[in-house]
């Protein structure tokens, strides 16, 4: 199963639209995950229409309608891989410890993968408890990065693999 991870699209404030490259990745994905800060309800509507399957959460820049439709935490299981999605995890310092405490193996509903956004800065690490933390960055607002980004990944045999940071130049 092919995954596309997005976050912090901030449309139409940071860009007028997603790049054609991103829409091509949406169409190739079996599951699109968006970790919040859509800003515009129209972006959610278009991603829902163009995705085979979409899982998303609302972020701190999203209004009441997006929060009502999405909520702040989403969970999905894909071929035995438990994925949680949130917008913000707090500062980079101590992130692994905090995420293990909230989503790691010792909690009632643990995740194997936590997808998050907010910083616009890509992140890929594994906590001491084995929780994979992934932030795809932002395709539209590169904030201190050389270019915008999304992530792709594959799930098969109950494992996440082939995680790739994909540049999204404008």
TrEMBL record:
Belongs to the metallophosphoesterase superfamily. YfcE family. Residues 1-156 form the Calcineurin-like phosphoesterase domain. Its EC number is 3.1.4.-. Its cofactor is a divalent metal cation. One of its GO terms (molecular function) is hydrolase activity. InterPro entries: Calcineurin-like_PHP_lpxH, Metallo-depent_PP-like, Phosphodiesterase_MJ0936/Vps29. SUPFAM superfamilies: Metallo-dependent phosphatases (SSF56300). The keyword Metal-binding applies. This is Phosphoesterase. It comes from Microcella daejeonensis. It comes from the Bacteria. Pfam families: Metallophos_2 (PF12850).
